[in-house]
């Protein structure tokens, strides 16, 4: 996932029509949002925590996307991507609690 795709998810989830609205609603810096829009940087972990809560996405998934985006070594990047691709087949502790 590219940073711009994350912004698009936030916009869609909250019915926002501009990155400016995202910036104001969540208190993000203008420079940060601009960099994410052009895929120049990925949100830091503290921001990813807020985004995970806002989007109801498991934080680990966003942190994994962040690690993949930042990874330069092709072998390490491929290994991280393979983990990401396996996630739909994994059981999470909160899934087991919901079944009980």
Layout of secondary structure:
Blueprint: H1 3-14, H2 19-26, H3 30-37, H4 45-55, H5 59-70, H6 74-86, H7 93-99
Helix pairs in contact: 1-3, 2-3, 4-5, 5-6
Task: Write structural notes for this entry.
The chain has 100 residues and is mainly alpha-helical. It is built from seven helices and no strands.
Q: What is the 3D form?
A: flat
What is the H-and-E element order? Answer: HHHHHHH
Provide the domain count: 1
Sheet with the most strands, sense and barrel status: none
Average predicted local confidence, pLDDT: 91
Q: What is the radius of gyration computed over CA atoms, rounded to a whole number of angstroms?
A: 15 Å
SS content category: mainly alpha
Uncertain residue ranges: none
In what range is the share of β-strand residues?
Answer: under 5%
- Helical percent range? over 70%
How far do the termini sit from each other?
33 Å
Number of helices: 7
Beta strands, count: 0
Give the tags.
single chain; 100 residues; mainly alpha; 7 helices; 71% helix; flat
Give a quick rundown of the structure.
The protein is built from seven helices and no strands.
